[in-house]
Design a protein that fits this description.
Layout: H1 7-25, H2 32-39, H3 43-50, H4 53-78, H5 83-101, H6 104-112, H7 121-137, H8 145-169, H9 173-189
């Protein structure tokens, strides 16, 4: 008999399977019951891990965001000194995650925004990424997060908009990478 999964291993497995459901059938097909059926586990297991469809969708979007930031931090750790290398790592890592995640991230966000507690979700995401960008770019910025918040929001908005253009409007990955690199470097150097 195989080793039993830890609670965290099971959660990771369930999130991966929830992602597969969203990829194949969209967010409307994702429920705790459909996840239990798809994963071959009992319904109480999915309820124990997530409690509600809303909590499952929230955990799924947070796992995407965390994956993006971890990829950026890992890439930056490999090239920690220059502004150019840092920006290059941010841009490449973010775009790679966007291409890998596909449109299901936006579907998950849209589904979550239907719940009253998530009306400000886009603002929360903007804050999360802006805070992460501040930590990553801090060696190249002067002042506090609060003093740089507007610029960091602009950087996140630019990255988000260009990434959307890659996913939905056919902007090439190479053009997006080049444009984002130039825009972010210009903004950071102007401070």
């Amino acid at each position: 008999m195989g080793k039993r999964m830890t609670k965290e291993e099971r959660r990771i497995q369930l999130l991966a399977m929830a992602n597969q459901i969203v990829q194949k059938s969209g967010t409307e097909a994702l429920t705790l019951i459909s996840l239990a059926d798809y994963a071959g586990v009992s319904k109480p297991i999915t309820y124990e891990h997530f409690g509600s469809r809303e909590a499952l969708l929230s955990a799924l979007y947070q796992s995407y965001d965390q994956r993006v930031i971890e990829a950026i931090e890992q890439a930056v750790a490999e090239h920690p000194l220059s502004l150019e290398a840092t920006v290059d790592s941010v841009v490449k890592s973010y775009l790679a995650c966007v291409v890998h995640c596909g449109s299901q991230y936006e579907e998950i966000i849209a589904a979550l925004q239907a719940y009253p507690g998530y009306r400000n979700l886009k603002a929360d995401i903007r804050y999360y990424f802006s805070k992460a960008y501040w930590q990553i770019l801090q060696p190249h910025l002067t002042g506090s997060f609060q003093e740089n918040k507007g610029v960091l929001y602009a950087i996140h908005g630019t990255i988000d908009a260009i990434s959307d253009a890659v996913m939905m409007e056919g902007l090439s990955y190479e053009a997006a990478e080049s444009l984002l690199r130039k825009l972010i470097l210009t903004v950071v150097r102007s401070l």
